[in-house]
Each structure stands twice: as C-alpha cells, then as structure tokens.
Amino acid sequence: MIAGWINSCYESIRNWWVACGIPLVWLDIIRAILLGIVLAIIVVVAVLILTYVERKVAGHFQSRMGPMRVGWHGLLQPIADAIKLIQKEDIVPEKADYWVFTLAPFVVFVPVMMVLVVIPFGDHLIVQDLNIGILYIFAVSGIGVVAILMGGWASNNKWSLLGAMRSVSQMVSYELPLILSVLGVVILAGTMSMGGIVEAQRKMWFIVYQPLGFIIYLFAATAEVNRVPFDLPEAEQEIVAGYNTEYSGMKFAMFYLAEYANMFIVSMIGATLFLGGWQGPLLPSPVWFLIKTGAMVFILLWFRWTFPRFRVDQLMDFGWKVLLPFAFINLLVTALVVII
Amino acid sequence: MASDYIVVCVMFFIALGFVGVALFVAKLVRPRRPTNVKLTTYECGEKPWGGAWVQYNVRFYLVALAFVVFDVEAAFLFPWAVVFKKLGLFGFIEMAVFIFVILFGLVYVWRKGALKWV
User: Fold this and answer.
1) Domain count along chain B
2) In angstroms, how far is CA A138 from the centroid of its own chain?
3) B60: which chain A residues are within 8 Å (Cβ-Cβ)?
4) Cα torsion at A14, A20, A23, A29 (round to 10°)?
5) Which of B6, B56, B116 has its CB closest to that of A28?
C-alpha cells in the first residue's frame, strides 16, 4: 500500500525528470543515495534494538531481569551505550600499524551495506533485484573476513592475532557448507535473484523441500557470524576478546555494529531462502518478513544459552568432515529428485 | 543491465561515508589524552613481551588453499544450478562427475591429515 504510493510518486518524478531532459542516470544515483541513507539508519536502529533484545533474552533465560535502570524496563539502555561509545577515547597502540588499524572498521562495514541492496524486505521493497542476487551476497560478504584479519594483524597484539586467525579459518571453512546449502534452493527456484526465489516459494516454503539444507545453513550461518557455540574467535576466557581487543571507542563500535548487523543479515537471508521471504497471509509483507527474521535471530540468541563452546579441532572437524560432505549429499540428492 | 549496479556502487560510498562521519563525529566529542602506558599493547597488564607479527602456523595456509579450491568450485556450481532444470539428466551426470572429483580431493586432503587440527 505505502510501497505502491511511493512507487507511483517515483514514477511521476521519473516522468518529470525525463521531460526536463536530464539523463536518467542522475535520478538513479539520487534514488540510490536516499535509499542508502535510509538503509544505514535502519541498520543502526536495528542493531540498537538487537543489543537490547539480546540482553533481555539472555537475562530471562537465566532468570534475571536484564537491563532495568535506564528508561522503562531498560528501553533506553542501547542509547546510553551509544552515547558512551561516542565519548570514549580512541586508543591506537603505539606498536600498531596505524593505517591498517584505522581502515579495518571501514572495510568491515562496507559489505554489510552492500549486501542489503539485494534483500527483499517486502513486496516490491527491494533496493535492486540483481539477477545474480545470492551469488552477489556471498561475493560481497566475503570481504568482511579481510577486515577481521586487518584488524587483528594491525593491532600487533597476540590475542588479536590469535582471534583473527581463528576467525578467518573458521569463516572460510564454514563459508563452503553455507554456499553449498544455498545451491539446493537455487536449483529449486531456477534463479539466483532474491526476488525470484521469494516468488518461487509462493506455493510452499523451501524449508519443506530442503530440511537438511536449512539445518546446514543454520549451523554454517551461526559460525559465519561467530556466535556461540562457534564463538572461538572471541572466546573471552582464553583470548580476551579476539580480533578487536585493541579497539576502543567508535572504531570498536563499528566492529560491533557490523557483527550484529551480520546476525540480522544471515537471518534475513535464511528467511528469504527457506521461509518464504515476505510472503504470508493477512499481515502486510514487511511485517511477515520481520516476524520470520525475528524468529531466526531468536534461534541464534537461543543457541547462545543452550550450547557450550566448541574446541578448535572439533570446530574444524565439524565444518570439514560433517557439514561439507552433508552439504554435497544434499546438493546431489536435490538434483536427483528434481530430475526425477 | 549495467545501470543495476549503480546502486551497488553508490552503496559502497555511502557505507564508507557512514563510517567516516561516525568516526569524525566521535573525534569532535571524545577526549584525547594519550599516555605511554595507555598506548602499550594489552597483554593482561603485564609488560608486553615481543611483538605479535610472527609466522603463522602452516595449518592456516592449508585451510586457505582448500577453501580456495572449494570456493571456486562453488562459483562453477551456481550457473549450473540456475539452468539445471533445462539441462536435465545430461547436466546432472556432468556435474556429478565434477563433484565426485572434488569430493575425491576432499578425501585426499582428509587422509593426508591436512584437516587435522592439533
């Protein structure tokens, strides 16, 4: 409804633009800039809400109340945290590689914004439905790994380097099952475009045809975002905080922001690929998308308070010797069933 | 087609701009009082001993190599998966052979102990 109104507004502006004789490219660029700013605000707000929800959920899982002091039931806690982070002194260790150290927060945040381009938030609510959608997502989100290595290496700190190495090896190992689990969906949908994949699930969600694929996706995605039980890179009891040990103030906030935004992103991709995206009866499409994403995020939070942490060798074994073969089997079986 | 990617390009710069603005605003607000002790590397409060820029364990290279092999393979699999319904049985057998070759590689790496951690 609102989307339709915005679209008709856009159409009339576009007609006026053509009538004025200015090249359409400029209109596209202005539209992209506006959408980008809106998306950036959405990311920040979503992450603020998520930090609050995570602590509340964690609290209630452990029969505590969670944050209660700032505002009604602690609702203003994330804002207080944000203000605190802005005021913090920015410490760059003497021995650190200054430029790489400063550049890492930029590199970690860029893929977050770029992935959001192809996420269908609702009916016609997609910034740009690229025809290589899902491949583009994996291509871009791979950049995040580089940022972690940059941050860890540039800190010139043993904990940071250890955390970064663990993180990188874990992320590249689990990226393979992640990509392969998605291939089954691509076979069923016959397209890589995210809008097309949602469209293909009009009759039935893909989780019904791809239960194993969904489970592999869930495990691999949890490992991709470094969440418990795969949170070795940050294992605070052994290596302090991993790759962002030396970061403080706003630079740390950027890593934090990207980490939580990535949680949202893997949940959104999971909801789009396996849970039918924005489709659902009665409620407007963005609400459905939000509900499904929220369910996925909640599963990630739930994991954290259910499973103990893996050991490094268990982690690598699980990725390479369990998830990867199963992902291949899932792919072959899907292909076989489709052919018959 | 190419115009689809304008928004991707713009988004790249917006992300850079967002981080830039955030860091700049914080720079205006935050204090800056560095001391010698503050700027030392964190090592649980002890005096830092040596640097951290040492040689990586060779295991990480093995993981990275295996990753590159499988990732490139996945990149081949995507276009195949898109047109799979049109290719039919021929496409399936072709790709099954390819996947088995790669899986054989995985078994080889596994048997050689490259995946063994510890």
Assistant:
1) 1
2) 11
3) 165, 168-169
4) -50
5) B6
Sequence length of chain A is 340
Compute CA A146 distance to the chain's CA centroid, rounded to the nearest angstrom.
16
What are the structure tokens assigned to A311, written together? 């050991």
Find chain B residues with C-beta within 8 A of A131's C-beta. Answer: 4
Alpha-carbon distance B58 to nearest alpha carbon in chain A (angstroms)? 12
| ipTM for this prediction | 0.86
Domain containing residue B32: CATH number:
1.20.58.1610
Q: What pLDDT digit, counting tens, does each position of B33-78 carry?
A: 888 877 777 777 777 777 777 777 777 888 888 888 888 888 888 8
Chain A hits for B67, CB-CB cut-off 8 Å, are: 172-173, 175-176
Q: Which domain holds residue B11?
A: 2-112
Is position B108 within any domain? yes
pLDDT digits (tens, 9 = 90+) for A92-145: 888 888 888 888 889 988 998 889 888 888 887 788 888 888 889 988 888 888
CA proximity to B11, closest of A21, A104, A117: A117
Separation between Cα atoms, residue A141 and residue A261, nearest integer Å: 12
